[in-house]
TrEMBL record:
Protein's name according to its UniProt entry: Cytochrome c-554(548)
PROSITE patterns registered for this protein in UniProt: CYTC (PS51007)
UniProt keywords, alphabetically: Heme, Iron, Metal-binding, Signal
Annotated signal sequence range: 1-20
Record's keyword annotation contains Signal: yes
Species of the source: Nitratireductor basaltis
Segments forming domain Cytochrome c: 42-123
């Protein structure tokens, strides 16, 4: 009987360790990189194409926000870039986060920098 209890305890601890490893802090896995968020350093034409294909249906033709989809033009480029990196990592920051996982997962670092600059400057 004691062998069964010991086996059960080992299985539980092993399961907890496996779960903890699978759910470790986002800080452990989050890719860090330096983004240049200057209009001179990004491809605004490519960013415009991505915006028109992937963003404007929900965020509006001029990133003005629609219904529960937030306005983007009043944000700083750093905020937009940070959120896109977060969504690309499939991390939730609000109730609509899951809607952003699919479009963000395809974005490169350069795409993210371009979009961040584009949506915060193209519609002035």
């Amino acid at each position: 009987m004691i062998k069964i209890y010991i086996s059960a305890i080992l299985i539980v601890f092993g399961g907890v360790a496996a779960w903890a490893d699978a759910h470790k802090s986002a800080d452990d896995d989050t890719e860090t990189f330096e983004l240049s968020l200057n209009a001179e350093d990004v491809d605004l034409e490519a960013a415009e194409a991505i915006f028109k294909k992937s963003c404007r249906a929900c965020h509006g033709n001029k990133a003005q926000g629609v219904a529960s989809y937030p306005k983007l033009t009043d944000k700083e480029p750093e905020h937009i870039a940070d959120r896109l990196v977060t969504y690309r990592a499939r991390e939730r920051v609000g109730p609509n986060s899951a809607l952003m996982f699919q479009p963000a997962k395809k974005l490169s670092n350069e795409d993210i920098a371009g979009l961040a600059v584009y949506v915060t400057s193209a519609f002035d």
